Amino acid sequence: MMMTFKFGSIRNNLHYKGALLYAFFIPLHPKMATLAIIIWLFLSMISYKSGNVVKNKFLWLLPLFYVSYAVGFLNSGISDYGFIESKLSLLAFPVLFFIHDYSLQQRMDMLRALVAGLTLAGFVCLLVATYRSTSIENGIFVFQANVLSGKGFVESIMYGGNYFFGRHFSIFHQTVYFALYLCIGIAVLMFRPNEFKPLLRIVLIMFFLALLFLISNKASFIALVMVLQMLLFFSTYSVRQKVRGLAISIAVTLLFVFGNPRAREAIRKVVVDGITINKNERYGFGTRLLSWDAAFNLIQQKPILGYGHENTQKQLNTYYLKNNYTFALKESYNAHNLWLQSWLENGIVAVLLLLCVFSVLFSKSVGSPLFLSFVLILLVNSIFEGMFNRFSGISFVSFICCYIMTNPKKGGVVDEA
């Protein structure tokens, strides 16, 4: 009888263990996160009870987005079914959050698992960067962080050739996605102070900020500034304390912008050259302008139905070739904007669905600074990256969307996850 009771108790919480598994592994590697989703689905099926389903109409939005990809696929006339697998997160996470209800404590534990995974991922990145940068030559210890010889330390940072900066540092994910995860982690640490020991919380915030500095993703800098301002706005501090906090946030922002060679160079280019199209641009914001220019022009030609998922990149590459956007063509850049990319692939319906998703997220975030910070972070990143083009983006965005949409508390709750 006792064994039956214990087995039943364990079985009832298997879905919760699966959720923790995904939250912990998503910062570490896409393949590990994929395996975690499969395990989560399997455990959820085992512990499924019909009375535990979450009847939430908003969970249909992501599957509808998946349907829009299917329609775009049929419209393109291409017989590559790769999108079925690459976009499955739009179906998997609504199912996971539909068949089980998660308590407030379980939901907070998911965020704690995410913070733990980020911490481990950050340490691994630092260890690997250190290992790659050190060697022993003729019995002498040598530290060489530059990837390419003949480049100075600062120059190697600016142009993505340093083991401690940018894509060479972020070994598990593209920099934009690792930075996205870190911003979410920082928001959790800032808006849920009671969930972590004070000293540990401060150390982790500083560690995550340092990681963001090394990753050097400019969208994350913008998102970080917004999170810091939100923290001040929603805090119960006195006016003097808020002014002091504002000064600190400005100092941190200036440190990130002018202390980071890549960010400093990006600002210098904008100030000197303005926001103009440079066909030979190879780095930073200038490459985004090339992608956006191509996307806007292609959308004007086919605004209603779009080009379909598989055909969109071919159309972009054709535009790059026609207009001599050499580096954009070489790297086969997508639109680097979730809204433009979705419009190109699936037409105006996809944009309307995105508007619905973000409208719901904002409405569900009323009264919760943590959720509002999540939504703003996603919104900022959606402007600079087509987040549904890679598993690292589409799975995490789907997870956060379903997490917020199924929040058991109504608006007005500030301190509950």
Automatic annotation (TrEMBL):
The keyword Ligase applies. InterPro entries: O-antigen_ligase-rel_domated, WaaL-like. It is found in: Membrane. Keywords: Ligase, Membrane, Transmembrane, Transmembrane helix. It comes from Maribacter algicola. Residues 206-355 form the O-antigen ligase-related domain. The chain crosses the membrane at residues 20-46, 58-75, 111-131, 171-191, 198-215, 221-239, 347-380, 387-406. This is O-antigen ligase family protein. It is a multi-pass membrane protein. Its main location: membrane. One of its GO terms (cellular component) is membrane. One of its GO terms (molecular function) is ligase activity. Pfam families: Wzy_C. The keyword Ligase applies.
